[in-house]
Specification:
By secondary structure, this protein is α+β, with helices and mostly antiparallel strands. It has a single domain, classed as Aminopeptidase (3-Layer(aba) Sandwich), CATH 3.40.630.30. The chain has four helices and seven strands; from the N terminus they run βααβββαβαββ.
Length: about 150
């Protein structure tokens, strides 16, 4: 888990998207476009994580943003929510940053009785989500789901 001398700070993004230049550049080097797509969707108003039960969180250390992740209604419909746009700088992976973001979003009371989904884009992401209780599914518009706590 987190093995740093600094405290991890997680904040909910409000009306203004924080500077994501470092995250977008690092993601681009990895061939990942989710951070850039998030910024474009935010700018256009297509996705702001501001619907009922939705949220976008950023994680950082001493004011430096090192990761982000959000949750929206499942775009394919229904009462589910999708965790999306997760990205953590490579130097901060496997230190609990992504897990802390995901757990804060998963454990929100308004989502405890709903199906949660993700679309894991690669094997590393699949492993991450499966460690958090998500199960792979086939033939659906997402790769994994987590059934509600009953």
């Amino acid at each position: 888990m987190l093995m740093m001398t600094e405290a991890l700070e997680i904040a909910r993004v409000g009306a203004v998207l924080p500077d994501l230049v470092e995250l977008a550049a690092a993601a681009g080097v990895e061939g990942e476009n989710s951070v850039l797509r998030l910024a474009e969707d935010w700018q256009s108003g297509a996705l702001r994580f501001d619907g009922p039960g939705e949220a976008l969180l950023v994680a950082g250390f001493n004011g430096r943003t090192v990761g982000l992740g959000g949750i929206t209604r499942e775009p394919s419909g229904g009462e589910a929510f999708r965790l999306r746009r997760f990205y953590v700088l490579p130097a901060y992976r496997n230190r609990g940053v992504g897990t802390a973001l995901a757990i804060q979003l998963i454990r929100a009371p308004e989502r405890s009785k709903l199906v949660l989904t993700v679309h894991a884009g690669n094997a590393e992401a699949s492993t991450f989500w499966e460690r958090l209780g998500f199960v792979p599914v086939d033939g659906l518009p997402y790769s994994h789901w987590r059934l509600p706590n009953r």
